Amino acid sequence: LHAPRTPHAAMADWTDCLDFGISLAKQASEAVLTAFNRQKEVKLKSSPADLVTETDQRVEKMLISAIRKRYPQHRFIGEESVAAGEPLELTDRPTWIIDPIDGTVNFVHRFPFVAISIAFTVNKQTEFGIVYSCVEDKLFHAQRGRGAFLNGEPLHVSGQEDISRCVVVTEIGAERDDLALSTLTSNIFRLLKLPVHGVRALGTAAVDMCQVATGGADAYYHIGMHCWDIAASAIIVKEAGGVVTDTDEFDMMSRRVIAASSSSVANRISQVVRAFPCRRDCGGAPGANGGAAL
Ligand SMILES: O=P(O)(O)OC(CO)CO
Ligand SMILES: [Mg+2]
Ligand SMILES: [Mg+2]
């Protein structure tokens, strides 16, 4: 089902793809839970804290082969396929952006927050996102213009506008060089000094960001993640009434994101948090790799 820029394609609502994605996320969750308590063979990727297991690779292959069989024209950006050398390219074609296990370090350690994250874009616009937090058995999803849901119940952000009353979620990530670590820790220091009510990190960007959609947290920011970590949860936050930004408009390839309950909270975080340079996932944008404020 190729979707060129035609009025017909503009009218497509992609619900069939969403339903299929949800059924696959449930199957993938079973595979993740079966392996959760078992011994894992762990390999390193970009750093000593960037891990992959056989389950990450197997789940991604299962998802992609099932989707490809049903939608042969569709394209993919998958974390483990990119790690294996596949190009990371977002085109106008219908594209599935997949993180087979978001929270692999948690998975390896049996820390109980791991998720399957699936986003779907057409003409580079996200049409829906699915985040399945497997151990919690929480299925988050959102479709463009149709709201966000947790296990079928509508989601709403907190609406908090005062940063000093916020719980802010972030991730430490896998970067371990001095500049990244000092930037990360000084960002947390500055937020705590505002003060905010608390800073949290669950170990999965997808689930972290979904906390903003539920109103359980008021904001999330992250530097250094990849598009597959946050593409699905970004539309979930947006459809729950939240704000998703970068320095300017949200750009899922920039490796920076702020998701917040209100634009005033997003702006305040943007003033406080500094970014360290990260190579974009794909495409180019002026100043995208600079060390400017997030
Ligand atoms: O476990 P993954 O997919 O590498 O993702 C991490 C990125 O830091 C957690 O979101
Ligand atoms: Mg991830
Ligand atoms: Mg992953």
UniProtKB/TrEMBL annotation:
Report the enzyme's class at the first EC level. Answer: hydrolase
InterPro entries assigned to the protein according to its UniProt record, in alphabetical order = IMPase, Inositol_monoP_metal-BS, Inositol_monoPase_Li-sen, Inositol_monophosphatase-like, Inositol_monophosphatase_CS
Q: Which molecular function terms from Gene Ontology are attached?
A: inositol monophosphate 1-phosphatase activity; metal ion binding
Q: Which residues does Mg(2+) bind?
A: 79, 99, 101-102, 229
Pathway assignment reads: Polyol metabolism; myo-inositol biosynthesis; myo-inositol from D-glucose 6-phosphate: step 2/2
CDD domains in alphabetical order: IMPase
Stored Pfam families: Inositol_P
List the catalysed reactions: a myo-inositol phosphate + H2O = myo-inositol + phosphate
Name any cofactors this protein relies on.
Mg(2+)
Q: Which Gene3D superfamilies match?
A: 3.40.190.80, Fructose-1,6-Bisphosphatase, subunit A, domain 1
| Protein family (similarity comment) | Belongs to the inositol monophosphatase superfamily.
Q: What is this protein called?
A: Inositol-1-monophosphatase
Source organism? Salarias fasciatus
